[in-house]
Amino acid sequence: MAPASQLKLYTNVRSRGSIVEWYLKELGVQYEPVTINMQKKEHKEEWFTSINPLGKVPALVHGDLKLCESGAMLLFIADKYDERVETAEDRALCAQWVLFAYTDMAELLFNKNLPEGRMEAVMTYLESRLAAHPFVAGPEFTIADVAVGSHLVFSKVFLPQLDLGKWPAVAAYEKRISARPACEAWASVVCGANMPPGK
């Protein structure tokens, strides 16, 4: 496990860095959180753009490695710290669901002009997976559940009209994920902020 000084997360409650924090806490990985004050434009200051040239939050630093996309951060943390993600097949399956969350699920939350039938197609696909498996990537909680679960939690704020009851396996899964202590603590803060996540 890396000492806190070796793993530094630049984040803000209104960014997807909070998702990365949830995963780190699930794993019990020590890290140094650095809160970026977005109102004061700290993310546009030269010292921060030397880490993320686009001036966006979050950013993760581990030794000489600098990461600027929260999905990549999740995958890095899984590869380095999560013993449940052991094989190339495990990593590929988890990566598939992380990408699904960051593309298909994010589209449902933030695209106001969804193609007809898109919501039904995405949610039915997730329903079929969760009807056959207790967690997204199989029998155990993994990075895939942080990615998918976080977007289901976000739906309560950003898509309150979405009735998960239409997809009973998804609804039951969302309740199980939300009951996890690390998720519960994360959701209470993030949903309270009532703002869309950043990159």
TrEMBL record:
GST C-terminal domain residues: 63-198
CDD domains, A to Z: GST_N_GTT1_like
Positions of the GST N-terminal domain: 4-85
InterPro entries in the cross-refs: Glutathione-S-Trfase_C-like, Glutathione-S-Trfase_C_sf, Glutathione_S-Trfase, Glutathione_S-Trfase_N, Thioredoxin-like_sf
Example of a GO MF term: transferase activity
Keywords, comma-separated and alphabetical: Transferase
Record flagged with keyword Transferase: yes
Family: Belongs to the GST superfamily.
PANTHER family: GLUTATHIONE S-TRANSFERASE GSTA, GLUTATHIONE S-TRANSFERASE-RELATED
Protein name as it appears in the record: Glutathione S-transferase
Originating organism: Elliptochloris bilobata
